[in-house]
Amino acid sequence: MAEKKTTKAATKTAATPKATKKTAAPKVAPITINAENVGFKAGDVYQALAKSDKALSVAEIAKSANIAVEEAYLGLGWLFKEGKVTSVEGGIALA
Fold this sequence. Notes:
Elements: H1 8-13, H2 35-52, H3 58-65, H4 69-82, E1 85-88, E2 91-94
Antiparallel strand pairs: 1-2
Helix pairs in contact: 2-3, 2-4, 3-4
């Protein structure tokens, strides 16, 4: 079998994806996970929900409580386990 020779023109016409500019992920401070810290985050989440009197998304809870989204998830997990919050259409609300 004879091999086909490729020319420079043929290789240049091949579609090559353009390199996209990557943005660095925002630096997040490490979260200390222990019962006391998670309990405090649960309190922050509970207070944010109580203050709003409506269902909030996780991002809205984090913003209202002035905590990171990851910390809001920790607090929500605690509150879900205790039956203090419920998932409703539009977000999370107090049970």
